[in-house]
């Protein structure tokens, strides 16, 4: 058993941070466990990350990872209703799916930890499948598709933007799926095959956080999880997105209150050392009211009512996205030209030391607040362990601290290249500008 121990305090650029202390072990079936020691809470948090996301789906059967997230709460063979025993134990739970992972989490009093292990191990071993349960969840997911993506203002933006930016890689479709028919036509056999392929102990990571002893967690893990047989090893072979060498553009008209502009730029993936510079570029451009785009285009020139920039943070090469809603009586060409001018400035001059310091402080602050919750720490550690860098739970801010103004400039020259940009003009039908 490998253990990672650290002193409790760390100073980063005069900021006092608390170090996270954790142990880890691996069961004989390949299921990885991490125990995050947090003596400040009477609760226990359990996070289970499965190495499956929308990128692992068949292009003709998309939306399955998200559909399966819903099915996992439909009950297992021995526990017909997942929520009832958890609620009796004083717990609550939820889950999310994205392009890279599916993540389940719950909290409950630490004295009832075994209830969590019982529940999670049973649905990992023997999820209940039936035509009825599939039909119920299929209806739930298709209704979610309609409400959130088809019948909501700006709802179909990502259905348009992702396939505009990606031509080969499966990031081209959303977690909800390419189209609603893929869920409507899902068969029980498709679901069973998906479960068998991905929901195995050797394709998962469990993080338990709280005031707990490693020996007790290991005892419960062996009791409830080790009898589950390992599945076949999944080898991910995804097509690599080719370098974009020419600007792309799409214009649509929709019944929305304001015209919006969306610009995506290909950037490196989460495992690349240049990720941190790209992330800081997005903060410099459009994170908060002190960002460049907000100060110039919202406050000073009043061309946009709101503007933002962010990165998708995907494991494979992702996107840096800039988006803004145009003020009434401002033409699309006027707004877009001003936006491109400000983005281009980032490619010609590095940020000042003070400007870079401000966005780094935002990262440190966000990380510090996130570390207050045992559940947040458990989720973060599960993700970092998934990308084979569990030490980031303690060193993530140091990675951002390494970035210098010249690193930002070098990264901006490459990422913010106009030929690397895909633009979606989402025009309001109320405007003919």
How would you sum up this structure, described in words?
- The structure is a single chain.
- The chain has helices spanning 64-71, 83-88, 113-125, 131-150, 157-165, 180-184, 188-198, 214-224, 275-286, 292-300, 332-345, 353-370, 374-386, 392-401, 405-415; strands at residues 3-4, 9-12, 15-18, 21-26, 32-37, 43-50, 92-97, 102-109, 204-210, 248-254, 260-266, 304-311, 319-326, 421-428.
- The protein is of the alpha+beta class and 433 residues long.
- It folds into 2 domains: 19-224, Cytochrome Bc1 Complex, Chain A, domain 1, CATH 3.30.830; 248-428, Metalloenzyme, LuxS/M16 peptidase-like (Cytochrome Bc1 Complex, Chain A, domain 1).
- A hairpin with a 5-residue loop joins strand 4 (21-26) and strand 5.
- The longest helix is centred in the N-terminal third of the chain and has 20 residues, at 131-150.
- The radius of gyration is 23 Å and the shape is globular.
Q: Uncertain segments of ≥5 residues (pLDDT<50)?
A: 1-16
CATH topology term of the largest domain? Cytochrome Bc1 Complex, Chain A, domain 1
Report the end-to-end length measured between terminal Cα atoms. 65 Å
> What is the count of distinct domains?
2
What level of helicity do the residues show?
25-40%
CATH superfamily of the largest domain: Metalloenzyme, LuxS/M16 peptidase-like
**What is the overall pLDDT average?**
93
Derived structural class: alpha+beta
- Describe the main β-sheet briefly: 7 strands, mixed
Strand elements, count: 14
Class of the largest domain, according to the CATH hierarchy?
Alpha Beta
Radius of gyration: 23 Å
- Shape descriptor reads globular
């Amino acid at each position: 058993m490998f253990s990672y121990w650290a002193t409790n305090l760390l100073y980063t650029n005069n900021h006092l941070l608390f170090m996270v202390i954790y142990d880890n072990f691996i069961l004989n079936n390949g299921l990885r466990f991490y125990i995050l020691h947090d003596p400040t809470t009477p609760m226990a948090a359990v996070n289970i990350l499965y190495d499956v996301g929308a990128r692992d789906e068949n292009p003709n059967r998309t939306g399955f990872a998200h559909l399966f997230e819903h099915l996992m709460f439909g009950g297992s063979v021995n526990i017909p209703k997942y929520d009832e025993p958890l609620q009796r134990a004083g717990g609550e739970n939820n889950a999310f799916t994205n392009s890279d992972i599916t993540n389940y989490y719950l909290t409950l009093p630490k004295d009832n930890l075994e209830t969590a292990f019982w529940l999670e191990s049973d649905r990992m071993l023997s999820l209940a499948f039936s035509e009825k349960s599939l039909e119920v969840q299929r209806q739930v997911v298709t209704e979610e598709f309609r409400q959130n993506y088809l019948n909501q203002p700006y709802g179909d933006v990502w259905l348009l933007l992702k396939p505009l930016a990606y031509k080969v890689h499966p990031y081209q479709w959303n977690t909800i799926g390419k189209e609603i028919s893929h869920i409507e036509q899902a068969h029980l056999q498709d679901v069973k095959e998906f479960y068998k392929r991905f929901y195995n102990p050797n394709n998962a990571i469990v993080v338990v956080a709280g005031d707990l002893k490693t020996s007790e967690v290991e005892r419960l893990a062996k009791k409830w999880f080790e009898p589950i047989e390992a599945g076949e090893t999944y080898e991910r072979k995804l097509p690599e997105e080719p370098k974009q060498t020419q600007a792309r553009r799409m214009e649509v008209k929709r019944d929305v209150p304001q015209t919006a502009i969306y610009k995506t730029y290909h950037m490196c993936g989460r495992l690349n050392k240049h990720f941190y510079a790209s992330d800081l570029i997005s903060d410099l451009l459009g994170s908060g009211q002190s960002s460049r785009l907000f100060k110039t285009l919202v406050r000073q020139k009043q061309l946009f009512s709101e503007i933002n920039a962010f990165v998708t943070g995907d494991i494979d090469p992702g996107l840096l996205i800039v988006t803004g809603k145009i003020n009434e009586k401002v033409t699309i060409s006027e707004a877009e030209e001003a936006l491109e001018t400000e983005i281009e400035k980032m490619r010609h001059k590095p940020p000042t030391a003070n400007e870079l310091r401000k966005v780094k402080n935002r990262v440190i602050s966000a990380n510090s607040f996130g570390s207050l919750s045992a559940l947040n720490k458990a989720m973060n550690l599960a993700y970092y362990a998934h990308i084979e860098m569990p030490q980031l739970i303690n060193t993530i801010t140091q990675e951002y601290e390494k970035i210098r103004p010249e690193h930002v400039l070098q990264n901006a020259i490459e990422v913010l290249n106009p030929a690397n940009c895909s633009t979606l003009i989402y025009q309001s039908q109320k405007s003919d500008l």
